[in-house]
Amino acid sequence: MSKTYLEKVYSVKNTEEARQIYDEWAGSYDDELLEQGYATPMRVARALAAQIQNMDKPVLDFGCGTGLSGAALIQNGFTVIDGTDLSAEMLAQAADKGVYRDLWQTHPGAELPFDSGKYTAITASGVIGSGAGPSELLEILMEGLAPRGLLAFSFNDHTLTDPNYMAPLRDWTTDGIASLLFEEHGPHIPGIDLGSTVYVFEKA
Ligand SMILES: C[S@@+](CC[C@H](N)C(=O)[O-])C[C@H]1O[C@@H](n2cnc3c(N)ncnc32)[C@H](O)[C@@H]1O
Prior knowledge:
Keywords: Methyltransferase, S-adenosyl-L-methionine, Transferase. By secondary structure, this protein is an alpha/beta fold. 38% of the residues lie in helices and 22% in strands. It has one domain: Rossmann fold, CATH 3.40.50. It is built from eight helices and seven strands. Strands 3-2-1-4-5-7-6 form a seven-stranded mixed sheet. α2 (15-35) runs parallel beside α5 and α3 (40-49) packs parallel to α4 (68-75). Residues 15, 18, 22, 41, 63-65, 68-69, 85-87, 90, 106, 108, 125-127, 132-133, 137 line the site of S-adenosylmethionine (SAM).
């Protein structure tokens, strides 16, 4: 029997492989993830909403995929969501959901994929770590975030054991780059018994 994308995705080795697998997966991603109880987008959106007063400021949903994470932001009261992603096919699905103000494709390796300082809140649900994007994204997002802005993201259980991803978080707090406002471990994809930690950091 052929493997499902969920079985394949955690062995993705680089950005090009990630783009290919998400392009192929786009049409069945929502069905497969929702069937397995995908919980992280709602957890990230709820954690961010708890830290923010003005829900009308634009939020950047980085690695928006098919838009499940944007839909979760809308359900938690945010009104203006922009999205960007590596995969054109995932973006096409996101556009169909009608929850984003702007959507565009990210081309890794190019300049910062959005105007620096434009966003006071950025989310990355299921985007950074094993099965998705490299640890360098942490620095890119923190750099592009507006001062005093909030970065809400998740690390799945595989990523939580990888020092390449964990070290930047420690450096942010010890070097005074950002402070940790929220951290909670919980369900990520219950159907495959995978958890995630949701973090909210505030940039200095
Ligand atoms: C597991 S999906 C999560 C999508 C969405 N946030 C959600 O919660 O359903 C990971 C997404 O990250 C995107 N991605 C991976 N690496 C990326 C990168 N370097 N830049 C932008 N997007 C990336 C993939 O294309 C994919 O759509």
